[in-house]
Write a structure and sequence with these properties.
Blueprint lengths: L5 H14 L3 H8 L3 H16 L24 E4 L11 E4 L5 E4 L5 H14 L1
Antiparallel strand pairs: 1-2, 2-3
Helix pairs in contact: 1-3, 2-3
């Protein structure tokens, strides 16, 4: 999935403002999420106020390990809560969606779930 440039978002925001529609209405017509549209409006307006915008900060969990290369999924170690000694896994997707996988997971079902989530991208 390719990222859209800042300039392209600035043009989209201008078209939205010129339309006179609400974020939800404009988003429904263009296929853009209303939240994303509003965020870009805020981001571009705050960048205009400050010529040197602050670098983007990434929220990370204290449990998350540092990932050295891009990865679509982050694995987070979870404290053991099961008496057998096996620990569940937690998957953290780039969208911050968390999936807890029990030690006795079905690999086929998990694979299908990940395929569906990847397709939504």
């Amino acid at each position: 999935m390719e990222r859209t440039s800042r300039e392209a978002w600035a043009k989209r925001i201008e078209r939205w403002k010129d339309s006179g529609l609400t974020a939800a209405e404009y988003a429904a017509e263009t296929g853009i999420k209303a939240h994303t549209l509003s965020w870009w409006k805020w981001r571009l307006s705050s960048a205009t106020k400050d010529a040197t915008p602050a670098p983007r900060r990434r929220r990370t969990s204290r449990l998350a390990e540092t990932v050295t290369k891009p990865s679509p999924v982050t694995f987070v170690e979870m404290p053991s809560v099961i008496t057998s000694g096996a620990s569940p896994m937690e998957l953290v997707l780039p969208s911050r969606t968390r999936i807890v996988v029990p030690p006795s997971f079905d690999a086929t079902a998990l694979g299908r779930l990940l395929d569906v989530l990847e397709a939504r991208g």
